[in-house]
Amino acid sequence: MKRHVIRPSPISPPPNWLPLDNGAAHVMPREVWMAVFSRLSHQDLCVCMRVCRTWNRWCCDKQLWTRIDLNRCGSVTPLMLTGIIRRQPVSLDLSWTNISKKQLGWLITRLPRLRDLALAGCSWIAVSALCSSSCPLLRTLDVQWVEGLKDMQMRDLLSPPTDNRPGQADHRSRLRNVVELHLDGLDITDASLWLITRHMPLLSKLHLRYCHHVTDQSVHLLTEAATATRDSLTEVTLADCSQITDQSLAFFRRCGNIRHIDLRSCERVTREGCELFITEMSARVRFEQVEEKLLQRLN
User: Which residues form the domain of 276?
Assistant: First the structure.
């Protein structure tokens, strides 16, 4: 017996007019109401949704909910998950919540528009839901301070998914479109940075603060010849990385588009090394030290 995918019938479009008790329609059309709703906070929108069915549908329009922030909300309930799906956000922050792998897996398969996802402070078990072939093509991923996320887990996260369905011939990483990556506080080494150079060709902003096993060799891997990150990187944060030295500045000179290098609180980076970097780069572009060990490219 053949199997067929059964989908629910499409939702009818929202009404263009607000019906009144006398059967007539309100003088203001939907587009005017939407302009009003767009100026309200999400908390106010939730209040408006209780007024009537029409307002409920209008206030739930995905254009009003491009970003949903549940940072530190604590427990993620099934009602919250249903609300997120209904609103179809582009940006979703679930940092420091107790979301489970099952919940996150259920979410990402139903959020095709999702491009920015924050899971800082969550568990690796939950974050591992992103290893699925159903993970949307994200632009920004924040997994800083994720408990249990090390080199082996980074390999699973960046490698092409292994659960492709029949007919899915794409063997590239589902994170190949990421342009901004937050890895602060993770116990990762040069091995993870090598994986990033292989699977994230569009990476522009990389945050590695408090990654104490990241070394000058990590910067060498990011900037060596034939790596996409050599030309794609514009901002790198290595603040509080104890093993970074002035040698990393020599490697950063290879990057043609680098604009921001944060080496604050890196004890083995010297002021003299930063000044030498500025001097040697001045033939091509101008940099300044806006704070001690914080290098910024001048327009």
Answer: 66-162+172-297
| Widest CA span in the chain | 79
- Output the domain CATH number for residue 201: 3.80.10.10
Q: At what angle do helices 216-223 and 190-199 cross, to 10 degrees?
A: 10
Closest to 113 in 3D by CA, of 88, 82, 141, 132: 88
Number of structural domains found in the chain: 2
**88 to each of 101, 178, 247, 252, how far by Cα in Å?**
19, 20, 45, 39
- Any residues with CB less than 8 A from the CB of 167 and at least 6 apart, and which? none
**Distance between CA atoms of 76 and 294, rounded to whole angstroms?**
38
| Of residues 279, 200, 183, 285, the one with CA closest to residue 239 | 183
Q: How far is Cα 293 from Cα 264, in angstroms, rounded to an integer?
A: 5
CB 139 within 8 A of CB 116: yes
Q: Is residue 80 part of a domain?
A: yes
Characterise 88 by phi-psi region: left (phi > 0), alpha (psi -120 to 50), beta (else).
left
Give the model confidence (pLDDT) of 71-125 as tens digits. Answer: 998 889 999 999 999 899 999 999 999 999 999 999 999 999 999 999 999 999 9
Burial 134-163 (b: 16+ CB within 10 A, else e): bbbebbbbbbbbbeebbbebbeebbbebee
Which tokens hold the place of 258? 């680098």
136 lies in a domain? yes
Which residue matches tokens 């999400």? 42
Quick check: is 4 in a domain?
no
Look at residue 5 in the predicted model and tell me its pLDDT. 47
Q: Are residues 181 and 34 in the same domain?
A: no
